[in-house]
Amino acid sequence: MSHDPALPEAQFGTDSVCVIVGASHAAAQLVASLRQKKWLGRILMISDEARLPYQRPPLSKAFLAGDIAAESLAIRPPAFYDKQNVELVSGRVTAINRLQKTLQLSDGRELSYDKLALCTGTRAIRLSIPGATLGGVHGLRSQADVEAIRRDLSTARRAVIVGGGYIGLEAAASLRKQGLEVVVLERAERILQRVTAPEVSAFYQRVHHEAGVVIRTGVTVTAFEGDGQVERVTCSDGACYPADVVIVGVGVIPNAELAGAAGLKTENGILVDECCQTDDPDIVAAGDCASQWIPESGHWRRLESVPNAMEQAKAAAGTLCGERSANNSLPWFWSDQYDLKLQIAGLSQGYDQVVIRGNPQTSRSFAAFYFQNGQLTAADCVNRPSEFMLTKKLLSQRLTPDPARLADDAVGIDSFL
Ligand code: FAD
Known about the structure:
The chain is an alpha/beta fold. The chain has 3 domains: 9-123 and 253-320, FAD/NAD(P)-binding domain (3-Layer(bba) Sandwich), CATH 3.50.50; 126-250, FAD/NAD(P)-binding domain (3-Layer(bba) Sandwich), CATH 3.50.50.60; 339-416, 2-Layer Sandwich (Enolase-like, domain 1), CATH 3.30.390.30. It is 22% helix and 29% strand. The chain is built from 9 helices and 26 strands. The chain has a 5-stranded parallel beta sheet with strand order 3-2-1-7-19. Helix 1 (25-36) runs parallel beside helix 7 (306-320). The structure holds flavin-adenine dinucleotide (FAD).
């Protein structure tokens, strides 16, 4: 086989084994990047879901709405894994022995590795309240979760969604589209409180209200009640909501226990440097489970998004192949609800000023720009792709526009660059 001069020389021989734990967005990208970077050795990908890597974002959107079939969730076609010579292992890793470089699986098997990639993601938080295990009460993290929800939907008329974050609200939109009566119960004083400005929360409250979704904020769910199958949801204020199906979307926990038990540093995720290496030079972590050191800000940062999983997987593949390149990609996210495409560039946490461009009270298109100490840090752009692109460019060039001009919708986007 001749060597493509554009590609680095292979660093590891055909005998080397790279094991990837988890098989989702980060893992699928890691496979592609490892082969691009000339990893010639074996690649084993272990999944406890017994499925090839599939996309999670459509789970609360088109797949829950019944608009797409399960086959279209695949991140890559099955032939890709054959072509890349990936050995797919169905099972759950329960322990890492770093001295012997072996992994223990729950069924007793033991696997050896030379390099290890932890792409274990997160799991949905389950509520520890009475009735949490009743039929009809679901989390929303996996394809199996949504398949179970969809089975209930064939007879359900009333849905209660616990949690007014992006996943809960996307689910509300998808179920409303199918004609269900939908109630969203949120413990905080406003929906999306953790992630957006009050103006953006108020906008989504309005559009859901206009779509017929009932949103209750400042309420704590205390129990699910029913005889085997959920029939109603009760709250701390005494209110009770009838429900044929319940979706709980109250956040996630990083799957970092495996790494922690093996002595790797963890703290709300597996701690990795800017090249996604853990404190063991033979082990990387990428995706939702990884908390990355950001040298510029001096912070650890764990992100839950597909773009982050992919960028970290590319950096992790480089590290495994001995070519260190930092992941300093700009964070971005999206959320689809009804006809609204929300695109978020940057991170708004810690903002001290919000500038609104457009009118979120009356229209379905606007942008909220976030500033901290006079510096632009992020933007939430609803049906505003130009403002989203602008923000990405401004943030990557560390430019800050004049807030007053930004607020003026008549000032052309091009003038800010
Ligand atoms: P995960 O996708 O969490 O996958 C980890 C895999 O590892 C899982 O299959 C898990 O079962 C497996 N695993 C864990 N431990 C073990 C073990 N010990 N042994 C074997 N296997 C193990 N992001 C966006 O950017 N935009 C969106 O619109 C968006 N919408 C979303 C909607 C929903 C409903 C959900 C659930 C997520 C959404 N996300 C969205 C987030 C996005 O899906 C995640 O950021 C992404 O899936 C992270 O990929 P990952 O590979 O890090 O981990």
